[in-house]
Design brief:
Two copies of one chain form a homodimer.
Chain A: H1 10-26, H2 32-43, H3 49-58, H4 70-95, E1 99-100, E2 103-104, H5 106-134, H6 139-159, H7 168-193, H8 198-225, H9 232-239, H10 245-248, H11 256-262, H12 270-282, H13 285-305, H14 311-323
């Protein structure tokens, strides 16, 4: 999907190319190895979903006089990808992930030393971009707050490792931090800088939030439905006590086998993890998670329908359906 | 020195207490273990030098009408310590430091996971503080740039690990990143928000920079003069190829023994490191470093003398002499 997603959106694809070039320019750093690592990460496999949603939302109001100039829009779109990349790099340190976007991750290539500073460096690039482009708007504080919320989401996820009592509400807090806040920011910021009304900006905020949640739930489901995903990260998520949604939704089921296995915590073997995955499917966790994803997708689609009519609105609805695997 | 430094400055000591309270308030986070770690780190042993220099510089212009209100000054002073703490936490990950300010470091207490996020979290606290307090002044960009320069200094230090050809100019780049930029920011920002003239702000910038360089050189010298400092961090600096100034100043000396030892890089044993330290002293590295520190201290003192006359100016001269171990 990653490489074909934008084929049907040639105008958007062109703008995403601009974001990619701008990104390469902004992340340049006088440290050859790090430069190589960041450039590779920026050019390999990333779907640029956050910039894409941002760009689509800027086009909601056709020929708006309030739209800021294109260079600014490309810079803001870039800032979203930079923030995303910086959190990915730091997440990889924590997960000890060997791979990122199909390539060797920054931390496994250069060690955690460089990875810590690489993520920090991207935070400063992010702040430069928002300082230069959104400083005199309400979105400066919203950006800064988003970064904080992403971190609090990560910390909350850590706090609830191995917690077999955690609730869906708590999961939502984590998902907000991991994914939804950034989709929400991208959408709201797109509407705002595209010159949309404050009512449309509010709608965009909610749309981005719900798309983000559904997107993360579907990502969680992949761990249980695609054998090729049964790889180190999945294994590590379970072994490090990060429970994804399908598992979380069957924690209350009366299965001694499941709870005995989970009690092993970090000592789970690969066959045991595979058994947990089979149990989660058997107990209906995947189906329940799919239902929840559909609920959030529907919420987003209902709100998209309320947007002012435009080509961008139709593209947005279509992209949301494709991305969130709606068949109708 | 840490605990007695402010005894002779009762007014300053009172303001530093305010900064400490404010710091505890700002770093509060809904994650009990992390909260404990950050609180401990904020209350233990830190000299609060950067806030102290900032506060002294705010008082240069007695009863200036341009001085911003006290709450803002305490917030800005706090932001300097928060930025300092965040870089310390990430540095400890890279150095695998077991101790920080005499206490167990965040990373060795909670693992690198929490330490990565703890540092990131403090970055967001820093940005909140500068957003709330200096957004509409030139110091917003200067703060943001300082954070970037600190990181580039760290990256430059890594780039030159085990580099026996590195120059004093390169060392200065590292020192700027490690220490001097933040002292410079503290001093310049203090003068500016204290309502001083732009000429005085320029002087303050230079004073802070030179104090920072001298301070770091003296810290480097301590590794060679105080047996109690011959501990894990010193050992690690050498073993990880980070050459402090006294060593760097004798790299050109004609000593086969020194170069044979250095060629062992990360395989140096403790006795070998002790031998390197003895050689550095023998070859005059410590003396040369002391001369350089004195040069930068003198530059700072000459500039302090040019400041408008005030009680704060006298205190500043005295503190600089005490801190930088000037005997006259």
């Amino acid at each position: 999907m990653a490489f074909n997603l934008w084929l049907q959106y040639p105008e958007l694809a062109k703008d995403i190319e601009k974001v990619k070039h701008n990104l390469q320019d902004k992340i340049s750093v006088d440290y050859p190895d790090l430069q190589t690592a960041l450039s590779k990460m920026a050019s390999n496999g990333g779907k640029f979903l956050r910039p894409a949603f941002f760009l689509l939302f800027t086009k909601l109001t056709a020929d708006s006089q309030n739209r800021v100039d294109d260079k600014k829009l490309i810079d803001i779109a870039t800032s979203l990808e930079v923030l995303h990349m910086s959190t990915l790099i730091h997440d990889d340190i924590i997960d000890d992930s060997p791979k990122r976007r199909g390539e060797v991750s920054v931390q496994s290539q250069f060690g955690k030393d460089i990875a810590v500073y690489a993520g920090d460096y991207l935070f400063t690039v992010f702040f430069d971009l928002i300082t230069d482009n959104v400083l005199d708007t309400p979105f400066f504080k919203i950006n800064s707050r988003t970064m904080k919320k992403i971190l609090l989401g990560e910390l909350n996820q850590m706090k609830h490792r191995y917690n077999t009592q955690q609730t869906f509400l708590n999961y939502l807090r984590n998902v907000n931090g991991k994914t939804a806040y950034l989709f929400r920011l991208a959408s709201a910021e797109g509407a705002y800088f595209g010159g949309a009304s404050s009512q449309t900006v509010s709608l965009a905020t909610r749309i981005g939030q719900n798309i983000g949640i559904s997107f993360q739930i579907l990502d969680d489901i992949l761990d249980y439905s695609d054998a090729s995903r049964l790889n180190k990260p999945t294994l590590e998520d379970l072994a490090t006590g990060v429970y994804s949604l399908p598992l979380l939704l069957v924690l209350n089921e009366d299965s001694d086998e499941l709870h005995t296995l989970l009690a092993k915590k970090q000592d789970l073997t690969l066959p045991e993890i595979q058994r947990i995955q089979a149990l989660v499917v058997e107990l209906g966790g995947v189906e329940k998670a799919k239902d929840l994803a559909a609920k959030f997708t529907n919420k987003a689609l209902i709100d998209i329908d309320k947007l002012p009519d435009s080509t961008a609105k139709k593209k947005l609805a279509k992209l949301t359906k494709v991305l969130l695997k709606r068949t109708n």
